[in-house]
Description:
The chain has helices at 9-20, 23-30, 100-108, 217-227, and strands at 32-39, 42-43, 52-56, 61-65, 70-78, 83-91, 114-121, 124-130, 136-142, 148-155, 158-159, 168-172, 177-181, 186-192, 202-203, 207-208, 231-236, 239-243, 249-254. By secondary structure, the protein is α+β, with helices and mostly antiparallel strands.
Amino acid sequence: MKKIILIPLLLLLSLGNVFSGSPKRAAGRTDGAWQIVELQGHSVEAGENIPYINLNCLKKAMNGFAGCNYIHGTFRINTVKRHLQFGSVASTRMACPQMQLESKVLELLPLTASYHIESPEEGSDLLVLHAQDGSDLMKLSRMMPLDGKWTVSKVEEVEIPEQENEIFLVFNSSQKMVYGNLGCNSYNASLEYTPQQKSLLKLGTGMTTLRLCEQMELEKQLLQAFQNVVSYKKFSDRKAILCDKSGKVLIELAR
């Protein structure tokens, strides 16, 4: 005689979540930093100041950069029905020459009613925000948390004071490149970053302009440090570090 095994209803529901994709997993896919690449059908050019939003579904908190000012606020999300609604958005109060992009971002975020995520290619996600009528408001590409412009504040044990020629790096994972200024010469290199291994980072053999300046020691030290970078850690929107394979801090970044 065959045995009949009764499976509790609660267990069946749990198994259903595993195979269909639980809300927790869906929220995890929405979590993270997203670069704004399109506003109502118009492409957004990414320069040094990359506009983005960062979503924390656990805390229902949003922060980001709208093109001139840093922004933050709250949101509500229903991952089953794909509903998304942003609360009031606060921002810093810097004035910039071009504010059209920021004005449009701040106008469209409160109009968001729903979303979906596309995967145009493996390892690449595109977040699409929709208005109440279903029209596209905004498209955002998943970005490396380090993307954007950073001032180099420290190289190993050497503090870098403020100077006329700012020493900075701009990371752009969508274009797989990093560029900036080393104090004397401009710098450009390829960028290796795998979203599935979020902390890993490698800079390719960089190219620089060939200017000669009075003080070149710091520039040489930076170029040497770049060759040894294998990982990074971002502490906040304003602070990050680049490390070697042993975990030693090579470069500190700020913005």
